C-alpha cells in the first residue's frame, strides 16, 4: 500500500501576546487614544485657551506695537485697558477674535497630536525623560506654527488701534493684493525661533511640575488631577512667557509693519528689528508687554492643559467602555 511521501507541516502555535481580533486600523497609540482623538483634544484645548484669554492678548499687542514709529514712554496695563474701554468700548478687546478662532483650533490639533507622537518616539519607554519632552515640544511647535502664523498675523493687525481692516476676509484680501502672500509668513522664522525655546521650557517645566505635584500627595493624585494640571500649566506658561518676551515683541513688529503707523522693515531679519527697537526705545523696548504676556500665558496654559487632559480622560473612558 502506497504511503503519502509529501512533507507534513505542524501548525505553529501563536505567541502568547497575539490577539487576532485587533487590527492595525483599530490599534491605539500610547495613553490609550487614537491619533484623531489627540487632535480633537488639542483643538478643544487651544480654542478654549485663546478665546478665554483674548482680551489680555489684545492688551499685549497694543503695548508691543505702540511707539513703533517714535520713541514713547512705556504704557502700563491699566492705561492700555482704560484707553481701549474709553475710546472703543468692551468690543475693542475682542476685535480679531474670529481670526484667532480660525487659527487656534487647527493649529493646536496639529500641536498636541504631533507632540504626543514625538514624545512616544523620543522617550523610548522612559516617561520621565525631560529632554524628550522638550524636543517633542520643539517638533510640535515648528509644525503647528506653519498652520497658525497666517491667522496670527491677521489677528494682530485687526487688534491694532484704528485698524484699517473691516474683518478677517477684508484683511486677507487686502494683504494678498497689496503686499503678497509672503507677508502672511513674514514672522514665521521669528515665531519658530521664539516658540522653540518657549515650548521646550513649557513642556519640560510642565511635565516636571506635574510629576512633582503628584509625588507630594500620591494617594490623592487622581482626585486632584485637574488642580495638578492647572497649577503645573500655569507655572510652565508664566516661566516660558517671561523668557521669550523679546522675541514676541519682534514678532509683533514684523506682523504689524506698515499698519497704523508701525515701521516697515527692509527685511524680516530679527537682528534688524532688534536694532531698530533698541535704537528708539532702548533695551526696555524689547520687554514691552511682558506683564500682559505673562498674565496671558499663566492662566492660558492652565486652561489649555486642563481642557486637554479632561478631553483625553473623556476619550480614554470612551475607548475602555
Structural description of this entry:
The structure is a single chain. With 321 residues, the chain is mainly alpha-helical. The protein has one domain (35-307): Mitochondrial carrier fold, CATH 1.50.40. It is 66% helix and 0% strand. The chain has eleven helices and no strands. Helix 4 (97-123) packs antiparallel against helix 5, helix 7 packs antiparallel against helix 8 (225-243) and helix 9 packs across helix 10. The chain is globular and about 55 Å long. It starts with 34 loop residues before the first helix and ends with a helix. The model is unreliable at 17-26 and 68-72 (pLDDT under 50).
Distance between the termini: 60 Å
Share of β-strand residues: under 5%
Q: Which percent range fits the helix content?
A: 55-70%
Number of strands: 0
Protein name: Mitoferrin-like
Main location: mitochondrion
Solcar repeats: 33-121, 128-212, 224-314
Family: Belongs to the mitochondrial carrier (TC 2.A.29) family.
